[in-house]
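#help-structures

NK: newbie question. if I give both the sequence and a SMILES, will the prediction place the ligand too? trying with S-adenosylmethionine
OV: yes, paste both and it writes out the complex. here, I ran yours:
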Amino acid sequence: MQSISSTAGWTAAARELENVRADRILEDPLTLCTDAERRQWQEVVVSVLGYSPPVVAVRARMGDEAVKVAVDEGVRQVVSLAAGLESRAFRLQLPTELLYMEVDLPALLEARNQRLARTRHSLRPGCRRVEVAADLSGPWRQHVEDAGFDPEAPTLWLVEGLLPYLDAGACRTLLRTVREMSAPGSRLWCDHVHPDVFTASHYAPVLTSLDELGVLWASGWTDPRAQLTAEGWDARSWTVEELVFPRPDNPPPAWMPQVPARADTSDSGYHWLIWAHTA
Ligand SMILES: C[S@@+](CC[C@H](N)C(=O)[O-])C[C@H]1O[C@@H](n2cnc3c(N)ncnc32)[C@H](O)[C@@H]1O
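OV: that's the protein plus ligand as structure tokens.
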């Protein structure tokens, strides 16, 4: 498996750490990470920062809620780009007629299937789950279309934990493709880092390790709304801190649960969580 895909094990390890907290924002019983990935998350991130960044669990929980609200509003097509080891398709009660596509690199999907085969959890998604092997830094549209994507149907796109690994041009190209494939009424849940993280002194050792491991973030956004507006989306964004202490001029939508104030959320201004609709 490519080193970039080991980051899927790290986010799974972060969700696992969230599971055992009394004040958890997410419950994810199927995390699929290996001992080596758990150890690496601990060494590279948790022991350096002193906490497991809550953005991973908050992003996953809000992503769950985004799926639920989209389904309630009639959306029947979800495409998760860079799905990694995410187990939402198994975790949520989803309608049988919902098409839930999970796109990632071929080696990641293969490793994921081996891990799924070994798990003792029940693995019967309520929806129609389809895996699509594709490199999202190149042309991927055809792969998704060949796998049964309906261009006429409104889609919920999930792009969680991918954009920071793409350079600015690749992010633009990916989002342009997503927009071109989006029928009216489509939605997008995604995240990106704020460039300030690249100069934050306490993050420097984490970034050095990411660099050594070949998985350093390649881009960031100061203004997600402007980036997405330019691509034809009506977008809003929040940091985790802003979901803990909402600003009156930018309140989160009613379907987002309140994020509790915890010691680890006080340092959460480096990561954007973004919700957008086709404009
Ligand atoms: C940090 S993980 C996030 C996984 C999942 N979305 C989550 O939130 O747990 C990054 C994921 O991006 C995938 N990825 C990175 N570059 C990719 C590319 N060029 N094409 C497809 N997937 C890619 C990796 O394989 C990995 O699964």
